Amino acid sequence: MKILVLNSGSSSIKYQLFRCADWQSIASGLVARIGEAEGELKLHWLDANGQPQARQASLPIPTHEDGIDQILRSLCASGALTDVSELAAIGHRVVHGGATFAQPMIVDDDVEAEIQKVVPLAPLHNPGHLAGIAVARRLFPSVPSVVVFDTAFHQTMPPTAYRYAIPEFLYAEHRIRRYGFHGTSHHYVAKRAAVMLGQPLEQCNLITLHLGNGASASAIRAGQCIDTSMGLTPLEGLVMGTRCGDIDPAVPIYLLKNLGLDADGVDQLLNRQSGLLGICGVNDMREIDRLAADGNEPAELAIGITTHRLKKYIGAYYAELGRVDAIVFTGGIGENSAVIRQRSCAGLARLGIELDADANAERIAGERCLSVSGTEVSILVIPTNEELEIARQALATVAAAS
Ligand code: ADP
Question: Do the Cβ atoms of 23 and 44 come closer than 8 Å?
Answer without folding.
Answer: no
